[in-house]
Automatic annotation (TrEMBL):
The lineage of its organism: Bacteria, Bacillati, Actinomycetota, Actinomycetes, Mycobacteriales. This is PE domain-containing protein. Signal peptide: none annotated. Coiled coil: none annotated. Residues 85-99 have a biased composition (Pro residues).
Length: 106
């Protein structure tokens, strides 16, 4: 399988833009999700607000890991787009296999 370098470059650019947009949305979600005030002055409301904040913090941690993996994928795609041309697979110069091979009863 051969992939054109222009295609890899386009994909890397699209992924970079998507990642930047997602990072901006995640950053915007920090304060409203972690800083949810308790609905009331009772203990249950305080515990629910704390639980919501803990879930929000866990989401941000997972989001940071996903961003790191995303950034590595974009970097690899970008490097592949500017790297050397791929060499043909072994045996590609030999042409197609003979018509009467072992699978064809020959």
């Amino acid at each position: 399988m051969t992939i054109r370098k222009e295609t890899l470059s386009t994909i890397a650019g699209n992924l970079r833009e998507t990642g930047a947009s997602l990072a901006a949305h995640n950053a915007a979600a920090i304060a409203p999700t972690i800083g949810v005030p308790p609905a009331g002055a009772d203990e249950v409301s305080a515990l629910l607000a704390m639980q919501f904040a803990m879930h929000a913090a866990a989401y941000q941690a997972v989001s940071a890991e996903a961003k790191a993996m995303h950034d590595r994928a974009v970097k690899i795609l970008g490097a592949s787009a500017v790297g050397p041309e791929p060499s043909p697979p072994p045996g590609a110069e030999d042409g197609p296999p003979p018509a009467g091979g072992a699978l064809n009863g020959g």
